[in-house]
Amino acid sequence: MNIRIEKGIAEKYSSELLLLFAFESPDPLEGPVQKVDQAWNGFISTLIQQNDFKGELYQCRLIHTQGVLPAKRVVLTGLGRKEEFDLERWRGAASKAGQFVREIGMKQMICPIPSFQNYSTDALADGLVTGILLGTYQFNEFKTLDRDKMKSIEELILLGETEEALSKIRQGVHLAKIVSDAVCMARDLANAPSNEMTPHALAEKAKEIAHQEGLRIQVFDLAEVEKMGMGAFVAVAKGSQEPAQFIVLEYQQGEPLGTIVLVGKGITFDSGGISIKPSERMEQMKADMSGAAAVLGTMQAVAKLQLPLHLVGIIPATENLPSGKAYKPGDILKTLSGQTVEVISTDAEGRLILADALTYSLRYQPKVIIDLATLTGACVIALGDYVIGLFGNDETLIRKLEEASIKTGEKVWRLPLWEEYFEYIKSDVADFKNVGTRAAGAIIGAIFLEKFVKKVPWVHLDIAGPAFLEKEKPYIPKGGTGVGVRLLVQLLRDWSRPNSSDHTPSSK
Ligand code: BES
Ligand code: ZN
Ligand code: ZN
């Protein structure tokens, strides 16, 4: 979708379709929509008074202007009750408007950026564009039938009335485009089937990003990581015919205060291995590399935004399959850290590959480590599909993620990492087992990972629930979601300008 910004006034702007927003009564019209209403002889007010448009959240209505306005059509979208309005609802309403416009087959829409009290113009422009770009995302690459019937919006024109507004709109749009493109790229990676999105393909994608954004990249093959001593990663990779890849990306700009490492689980297909999964929904395990996708998306966005940071992205990528060469329950693995692990289930493979990746990350003497992983079904049971499970050993870092979460709407919920839980993964024959009890499964997964970060400030994000949706959310279509990208980019933007009083596009 092409996005243009123009100086203009909604009621005077000639177009095929004008997009406007209204609250529920008693105070429905504010900003540009109010002026359009006046120029339209109070037509919108009449609709509202007669209860023909209630302004309910996400309600959309198409109205022909019959030549009274220079715009031929208006799409009016509800924002719900004014006192409940926030940027999350705004992004959702923008998405619903975009989906509605697409479904009626229109190719272009014009939208004046509103001015709601307490919200800056850049934040509203950012929210609008984010909602529209993320809400109208489609994964059609593999559909060959009826391609000519597929609908998409080609152009969005944003209107601002003053030079000051236009400059704010430009800022918001710049940010929203970079971040939303990165989210959509991560969604594409998760939605791509595992016969296409192999570890090698993931590494190629990482190289492409590195090349485009000027990042340093290293990709190690199985023989190289075996030599390094990554016994856990190698064990998981052994059962697959697809060559495993250990991907390291590095970005540096300005004079940052310390190194931040992001680690993403890159299982391109998780069958469970010898401890094979039930076949029901196994196809969704193509998205078991969503942590890796989030790391790649974040690195891409950070580079495009040129944030002053030293950021390292680490992705252990492999399939988890059963075969005559596969690792087995009862095997004892020697991890890169030197610590040993007794395999109880080969389906708890994420923590094994992450253990070696986390140990590897310590080479960078990081100030903080953040890992993202579709780690446990237990986290989905505990928190559902719209919340990320958050674990960590450092209160300051945890608080920063919680703040970024509130700004982006990518919800996190903290779970404990008390030492008592370690009892569950003590092994009779090795240092740890890779599985404890079914009870507290998400916490036990995190406790296992903690054994590999020494004392470095670290957060683990279990994204098993929100990484892949069976039912859409307001601005997240079904399938791979790209979750984590917006959260991390917000965190890193805040990180790179710690003293700025926060009038940023993603907050009020
Ligand atoms: N990739 C799965 C976790 C998962 C489950 C992600 C559902 C997304 C949706 C992970 O590798 C796994 O299989 N975990 C096991 C751990 C268990 C054996 C301790 C699980 O959750 O059952
Ligand atoms: Zn598994
Ligand atoms: Zn897995």
Describe the secondary-structure layout.
Elements: E1 2-7, E2 15-22, H1 32-39, H2 43-49, E3 60-64, E4 71-78, H3 87-103, E5 108-112, H4 121-135, E6 155-160, H5 163-191, H6 199-213, E7 216-220, H7 222-228, H8 231-237, E8 245-252, E9 259-264, E10 266-270, H9 290-305, E11 310-320, E12 332-334, E13 340-342, H10 350-361, E14 368-373, H11 377-383, E15 388-392, H12 395-408, E16 412-414, E17 432-433, H13 441-450, E18 458-462, E19 468-469, E20 479-480, H14 485-496
Parallel strand pairs: 1-6, 2-4, 5-6, 9-11, 9-14, 10-11, 13-17, 14-18, 15-16
Antiparallel strand pairs: 3-4, 7-8, 8-11, 12-13, 15-18, 19-20
Helix pairs in contact: 3-4, 4-5, 5-9, 6-9, 8-10, 9-14, 10-13, 12-14
This protein binds ligand BES and zinc ion (2 copies).
In short:
With 508 residues, the protein is α/β, with parallel strands linked by helices.
Task: Describe what this molecule looks like in 3D.
- The protein is an alpha/beta fold and 508 residues long.
- Helices cover 35% and strands 20% of the residues.
- Strands 7, 8, 9, 10, 11, 14, 15, 16 and 18 form a nine-stranded mixed β-sheet that branches. Strands 1-6-5 form a three-stranded parallel β-sheet.
- Helix 9 (290-305) links the parallel strand 10 (266-270) and strand 11.
- It is elongated and about 80 Å long.
- The model is unreliable at 501-508 (pLDDT under 50).
- It is built from 14 helices and 20 strands.
- The structure holds ligand BES and zinc ion (2 copies).
